[in-house]
Design brief:
The chain has 109 residues and is mainly beta. The protein is 0% helix and 61% strand. It is built from no helices and 8 strands. The strands form 2 sheets. It has a 4-stranded antiparallel sheet with strand order 1-8-3-6, with no helix packed on it. Strands 2-7-4-5 form a 4-stranded antiparallel sheet, with no helix packed on it. The protein starts with a strand and ends with a strand.
Length: 109
């Protein structure tokens, strides 16, 4: 069984829900850290879902729900969430080009 540390996503999601990462076939992913950085002078919010394979983003799989990141600030969230093959990480932000997301973890296959 190989465990590979990996950057799962870095970028700015749009103002419409989008998939940031999909767990590859025959793999489990452990999400270890999410960094949210608001690069604007105005508070902004972001919603992030860990969506099980075959399901859709909704209230039952939100890990951050309209979480406010204050102006010119960064939030660092350490966790250990296991995602199965085909699961996705999806996100949407309320203000275009405000929040940069960096997600890191470990893929195990």
């Amino acid at each position: 069984m190989a465990a590979t540390p990996k950057r799962l996503y870095i970028g700015q999601p749009g103002t419409s829900l989008e998939t940031l990462y999909t767990v590859p076939t025959n793999t489990k992913t452990i999400v270890k850290q999410i960094v949210l950085s608001n690069t604007t002078g105005t508070d902004a919010n972001v919603t992030i879902h860990f969506v099980p394979n075959g399901q859709v983003a909704g209230n039952g799989n939100k890990i951050f729900s309209a979480l406010t990141v204050t102006a010119n600030n960064t939030g660092i969230f350490d966790l250990s969430a296991v995602l199965e093959a085909g699961d996705t990480i999806q996100a949407v932000q309320g203000t275009a080009n405000a929040i940069t997301i960096h997600i890191s973890g470990v893929e195990v296959n």
